[in-house]
Amino acid sequence: MAAAEGLAQGCWSAFWDYETPKVIVVKNRRLGVVYRAVQLLILLYFVWYVFIVQKSYQDSETGPESSVITKVKGITSSEHKVWDVEEYVKPPEGGSVFSIITRIEVTPSQTLGTCPEVSALLPAGLRTGRCVPYYQGSAKTCEVSGWCPVEDGASVSQFLGKMAPNFTILIKNSIHYPKFQFSKGNIEHGKDGYLKHCTFDEVSDLYCPIFKLGFIVEQAGENFTELAHTGGVIGVIINWDCDLDLSASKCNPKYSFRRYLGLGMPGSSFAKYYKTNGSTTRTLIKAYGIRIDVIVHGQAGKFSLIPTIINLATALTSIGVGSFLCDWILLTFMNKNKVYSHKKFDKVCTPRRSPGSWPVTLALVLGQAPPPPGPRSADPGQAGQALAALPPWLCPASAPPEQMVDPPEQTAGPEPCTPEPSPQDSTLADPRGLARL
């Protein structure tokens, strides 16, 4: 119990201790080089990366509000017919996601009835339980009831991609950053008929968002013929990164194109129905093509005082990492580490009793008030007795501060750096000095 009480009392007493830094000059060139190098690296990091590259002095907003309208133009043909926009663009509403059909498998003149199935894994109707001859050869298969003939047995493939690379796609986009009340679009205004005669060029026609389908596929790094046969998804990414500290003309869209692997248009099916001799007939179309996804993102920034102050304070605080690193090297790896520890850490006691008034108490804490009167004598013994008679709130003064250097080589000659003790520390360490105070 006594030990626990002593430990608790010691922790409680240490809780009210105050620590203040002590400045020590260490004459060591290697340690000084490390210290300045760390400070320089931290300074370069904050000046170049944080403030110039990241622009951390700005308030930012990501994800602008966006609206996209698209329109496709062009005519193409297959082996049996001519196709216009209303037939090969799905859906036709002109949204940010649409598909352009480049290959179809057509099963014409399907009627409701019974017929042989082609694949047992993909039944095209309800099985009747009868076994009937296959379409070709002497083999037999199950009979199904549904739209006949079935798709896999009578479909004809048609390629629409011969003229598809010349299809033009208008992508109209408008963005808005609500935090900064900033809006802008990707179409050049004030030029009559401009969009009728232009196509997109990053240098000369940045604000003419009319793209050829072949150009989009090429910029995505794909072969158009292969993609038109198998189908695929291409993203058109519009990036609006705007520094609003500059003029609005400096905020421009940047376009990029990317093929999304593993995604395609694996045979979207639709049918066209009509009447023949009073019975319902349909033409089944299974379509493959290129799906276009228009994706808009961006970030806007503008100067703000709060993030500037926060990042400046962080930079100034981080410079202190150099002192921490050098202190660790000094006290852990360098020679005379015990001497350095003794020089770096001092303990100063405060008075345990009040001398009577707060000005005197403050002066005693700061070490500026004279000690209680006592006999003055030149006798060293009497001086020692006078020092022993000092009140308990005066702690023995530490050794006088000095500039520390690495120990020199054992050569003849005087010490390279032996500074004189400061008058104030000498007075505090000397009884006679205390008497003179």
Task: Name the descriptors.
ion channel, atp-gated p2x4 ion channel fold, 13 helices, 437 residues, ion transport, cell membrane, Helix Hairpins, 31% strand, alpha+beta, 18 strands, ten-stranded mixed sheet, 3 domains
Could you give the topology of this structure?
Blueprint: H1 2-15, E1 26-27, H2 29-53, E2 58-62, E3 65-73, E4 76-77, E5 82-83, H3 85-88, E6 89-90, E7 97-116, E8 126-133, E9 140-148, H4 151-154, E10 156-159, E11 168-177, E12 182-185, E13 210-212, H5 213-219, H6 224-230, E14 232-243, E15 254-260, E16 268-276, E17 279-303, H7 305-318, H8 321-332, H9 337-344, H10 358-366, H11 380-388, E18 404-405, H12 423-429, H13 431-436
Parallel strand pairs: 1-18, 14-17
Antiparallel strand pairs: 2-17, 3-11, 4-5, 6-7, 7-9, 7-10, 7-17, 8-9, 11-12, 11-13, 14-15, 16-17
